[in-house]
Design brief:
By secondary structure, the chain is mainly beta. Helix content is 8%, strand content 42%. Strands 2, 33, 34, 35, 36 and 37 form a six-stranded mixed β-sheet that branches. Strands 1-28-27-17-16 form a five-stranded mixed β-sheet, with no helix packed on it. Strands 3, 4, 5, 6 and 7 form a five-stranded antiparallel β-sheet that branches. Residues 273-361 form the CS domain.
């Protein structure tokens, strides 16, 4: 059985600046232009039944301004009349007057449970469009940058069930067969989820194809669904359509389309009453896994394979437990024995001593963790100062008690770390996994429309931009740019709503919910001589911060 490769992101040290001194506030004026619209943007407010954090992430924080990455000067939005409006942005000059390029054939206001209409620019001549009611449109546009050849024409139009938004789409041409792959996001109700939010996130991978040049009709040729518990920060197809990459807090897995609901309910109920398959304990140095063996089991019936990040247990020819471990182990020192009570005891030696594992096998819920009395006593001792009547019950400790009000957002520890996963389009299995740990996801941006969108992660205090590639493991994620200290700076912006950067990495922009937009520019040479008074050296470059305060309190959208 193929096992997903555990990978890591390789930072290019030459792109880091350890001597970066911070951003200097610049009072240089920023050009601001205002344009009145004849119809409001088709903004959709969250309903009362859309109350979870995932609903807010997916729909409440939606950006209604869409930049055409194939023609960077073009901006689109959808208004209340169902019109797709296009305007041209000429930097430092003016805003062009919006013009209608397409009108949705359905009345958006007639649907009570609709989502925000979404649009994705698939290629220089194709657009994927959702009206927010559950209908998908594929539109041939001609060359959008040429007004003479631009003509928006519906090539595919079909109802696909519950409302969704479009996350990503690509255009493919293989053996004269033209296909468009789209990734759709829904948040569905889960009736059996009694402990969680009662919802799950669905990503549907739909491929729509035209078999030959003579055949003008496009049809759905493939539908696959991924299911998870959190809205992905990032999800995009590889340019060749052979894979999908997702960054999310909680993992996604492919599920069978059309799986019988009653069967799945029976399976879920049986899982709830099923006894644990194994029990496990841990110390600072190792983990102990105990499995009750079937009667008359012998040593020859047991096969245990240890890998640095993986374990595989086979009992009597059947796979008992297999998967990626939460952290690395010393596989050469790990052992297993058969106890007198007909149980299998496995000892895994931790490679990172002192690290507490929240789970044994990533995503596996079949085991039960047992904490011994010594661990309970140690935890109680560490937490005693939180319940004492005195401010600092141990006078021998020099460190003052922690004041939570003094903590900054950048000091907050995320209980669940994000992961970056690559899924194979043919096998529908995970092939590569990167545990992002404390590398907080910040934003995504399209640098080259022919490549996958880039994503930006926080590394220590910096913000690093990564370009995914559909290639081998060694160059699958490339570090292409660094925004110095931006990871730390953005953490202080409590009201941030959108985050982006220029395709040439010259600046990053952070937009708050109302009024203010912060711009952080890369260091540029100084025209005058400037010295660092502390170190007595000349400063050759300065990074500037600019702030734009808008005259309105209306919600802001960012290109």
């Amino acid at each position: 059985m193929d096992v997903a490769a555990n990978c890591s992101l390789r930072v290019k040290r030459p792109l880091l600046d350890p001597r970066f001194e911070g951003y200097k506030l610049s009072l240089e004026p920023l050009p601001c232009y205002q344009l009145e619209l004849d119809a409001a943007v088709a903004e959709v407010k969250l309903r009362d039944d859309q109350y979870t954090l995932e609903h807010m992430h997916a729909f409440g924080m939606y950006n209604y301004l869409h930049c055409d990455s194939w023609y960077p000067d073009s901006v689109y939005y959808i208004d209340n009349l169902g019109r797709i409006m296009n305007l041209t942005v000429m930097l430092d000059t003016a805003l062009g007057k919006p013009r209608e390029v397409f009108r949705l054939p359905t009345d958006l206001t007639a649907c009570d449970n609709r989502l925000c209409a979404s649009i994705h620019f698939t290629s220089s001549t194709w657009v994927a469009l959702s009206d927010g009611t559950g209908r998908l449109y594929l539109i041939g546009t001609g060359e959008r940058g040429n007004s003479a050849s631009e003509k928006w024409e519906i090539m595919f139009n079909e109802e696909l069930g519950n409302p969704f938004i479009i996350i990503h789409s690509i255009s493919l041409l293989k053996d004269e067969e033209h296909s468009i792959a789209t990734l759709l996001l829904r948040i569905e109700k889960e009736e059996l989820d009694m402990k969680g939010s009662g919802f799950y996130v669905s990503l549907e991978w739909i491929t729509i194809s035209k078999k030959s040049k003579d055949n003008k009709k496009y049809e759905i040729t493939k539908r696959d669904i991924l299911r998870g518990k959190s809205v992905p920060h990032y999800a995009a197809f590889e340019p060749d359509g052979n894979g999908l990459m997702i960054v999310s807090y909680k993992s996604f897995t492919f599920v069978q389309l059309g799986q019988d609901l009653e069967e799945s309910q029976d399976e879920n109920m049986s899982e709830k009453i099923k006894a644990p398959l194994y029990y496990w304990q841990q110390t600072e140095d190792d983990l102990t896994v105990t499995i009750q063996l079937p009667e008359d089991s012998t040593k020859e019936d047991i096969q245990v394979q240890f890998l640095p990040d993986h374990v595989n247990i086979v009992l009597k020819g059947q796979r008992f437990l297999e998967g990626n471990l939460y952290s690395s182990i010393d596989h050469e020192s790990s052992t297993w024995i058969i106890k007198e009570n007909n149980s299998l005891e496995i000892c895994l030696i931790k490679k990172n001593e002192g690290l507490t594992w929240p789970e044994l096998v990533v995503g596996d819920k079949q085991g039960e963790f047992i904490r011994d009395s010594a661990q309970y006593a140690a935890i109680a001792e560490r937490l005693m100062h939180l319940t004492s009547e005195e401010l600092n019950p141990n006078p021998d400790k020099e460190k003052p008690p922690c004041n939570a009000q003094e903590l900054e957002e950048c000091d907050i520890f995320f209980e669940e770390s994000s992961s970056l996963c690559r899924f194979d389009g043919s096998t529908l299995k995970t092939t590569h996994v990167v545990n992002l740990g404390s590398n907080q996801y910040l934003f995504s941006v399209i640098v080259d429309p022919k490549e996958m969108p880039c994503f930006c992660l926080r590394h220590d205090v910096d913000a690093l931009l990564w370009q995914p590639h559909s290639g081998t493991q060694d160059d699958m994620w490339e570090h292409i740019a660094t925004f110095n200290a931006l990871g730390y700076v953005q953490a202080s912006k409590r009201d941030k709503k959108f985050f982006a950067c220029a395709p040439n990495y010259s600046y990053a922009a952070l937009c708050e919910c109302l009024r203010r937009v912060f711009i952080y520019r890369q260091p540029t040479p100084m025209s005058t001589v400037l010295y660092n008074r502390k170190e007595g050296r000349q400063v050759g470059q300065v990074a500037k911060q600019q702030v734009a305060s808008l005259e309105t309190n209306d919600p802001i959208f960012l290109l």
